[in-house]
Design a protein that fits this description.
Layout (H helix, E strand, L loop, with lengths): L6 H5 L7 E4 L7 E2 L19 H18 L6 E4 L8 H18 L5 E5 L6 H9 L3 E5 L4 H7 E2 L7 H12 L5 E6 L6 H11 L3 E5 L13 H14 L7 E2 H10 L17 E3 L5 E2 L30 H11 L3 H4 L4 H4 L21 H18 L1 E3 L5 E3 H7 L1
Parallel strand pairs: 1-3, 1-10, 3-4, 4-5, 5-7, 7-8, 8-9
Antiparallel strand pairs: 2-6, 10-11, 12-13
Helix pairs in contact: 2-3, 8-13
Amino acid sequence: MSADDPDAAAFRDQPISQLLVKVASRCNIDCDYCYWFRDAAVYDKPKLMSAEVLQRLLQRIEEHVVRHSLIDLPIILHGGEPLLWGVENFKRIAEACEAISARTGCDIPIAVTTNGVLIDDDWLDCFEAHSISVAISLDGPAHIHDLHRKTFQGIGTHAAAERAARMLLSRDIGVSALAVCNPTFEPKQYVDFFSQCGVAHYDIMIPDATVDESPPSIAAFYNGLFDQWLEANRSKATVNIRIVSDMISALLANNSPTEGVGHKPIELCTVMTDGSVEAHDVLRIAGDGFTQTNFNIFEHAIDEVRNEPRWKAARDASINLSQKCRQCKFMNACGGGYLPHRFSKSNGYDNPSVYCDDLYSMFENMQSVLAGHLYVSKPDGERVDVRDALAGT
């Protein structure tokens, strides 16, 4: 979507279509790169969502679904570490959402992002019985994972996380893995590890950083990851690496399903453990209290957050790109990069991504490789180079 696309204004009138629910504000491990605890304000929130807040949230969900005649409303249970909320609470919210779906006809799929340490057979039974999909935080092999993802006693958590991943894969549960890129290591080490574990769907996420920081370059890592993806899928589709598939979709002028790629509004709604409502939770890397609002589910309907100044400012910033981005040939595919990575204390979000040069290199490399693999087949059988076809369009 281009910056002057008339559909942009219409899109902003759509209701909230996804909820990120913080059911726990604390964690049981101590990851040194976690964005969540960069903001000390999280310690002011209740450790766990109470029954009262959950009940009100469920009322607001049904109200929102009915008011806007939604056909689906995905919910992601998040933290901190969401499994600290307990398996009985997971069953409670799942059963309540199933009842709402039965009454309204709206599908309410539930997903959870977890470090996996607490997973046992009771959790597996819960996930399987209620079709709860699980994204497990697993930074590839042990020597990479254990550099950053440790217990409070400084012990690596890889063994527990890998064990949890293998347990999840043994059941009828939708499973994906979330890793954070460490460009010191070769992408093949990640790809080989996930292959050995049997994890076919995963993401290797760009490390969080603002413009005020100086993170290491990531372009060589992701260009190598793209090569690994091509090799793994050369004969048939066997591996889905989300950041690669999202970038390919964006280059081919399709909407990327995740918020970090492509030029589109970010309209996520985050419900905190006390029922307060914020925008995208990752934006708290900007500093203490930066995401706080005066909105909550006790006094406000879910969609009212669209009028909250801080939520609106973040949403508008996601599509109002810096001048450098607007002049870039990859503007629509890149979308300026992930919104939190565009923040600076001096200019807010009016910056290119701190990874701007890397992203340009990644898209240019991918475009060049794809042009050699893709063509458009015309009705008469003629094959047209994909770059020529797009230029003609």
